Amino acid sequence: MKVKGLGTWSIFMTLTLSVGLSNHVIVLPTVLEVSERDWSGIFLLD
C-alpha cells in the first residue's frame, strides 16, 4: 500500500489557519492592551 505525503494544498491551509489563530490569540490582545481598549471597543465605533 502506497502512503501519500502532505500535499501543497494541505500545507497551505495549515499555514493559513495557524496565522489566523495566532493573530486572534497573541497579536490582538496585545494590540488592545497597548491601545488601552477593551473587547467592546472592537464592536463599537466612537
How is this structure best described in words?
The protein is an all-alpha fold. 67% of the residues lie in helices and 0% in strands. The protein has two helices and no strands. The chain has helices at 8-34, 40-43. The radius of gyration is 18 Å and the shape is rod-shaped. The termini are far apart. The mean pLDDT is 80. It comes from Paenibacillus solisilvae. This is MFS transporter.
Helices and strands, with pairings:
Blueprint lengths: L7 H27 L5 H4 L3
Brief summary:
This is MFS transporter. The protein has helices spanning 8-34, 40-43.
User: How much beta, percentage-wise?
Assistant: under 5%
Number of separate strands:
0
Helix content: 55-70%
**Low-pLDDT sequence parts:** none
Rg over CA atoms, rounded to whole Å, is 18 Å
Distance between the termini: 61 Å
Largest sheet: none
Number of helices: 2
Order of helices and strands: HH
Overall mean pLDDT score? 80
Specify the structural class.
mainly alpha
Principal-axis shape equals rod-shaped
Q: What are the key terms here?
A:
single chain; mainly alpha; rod-shaped; 67% helix; 46 residues
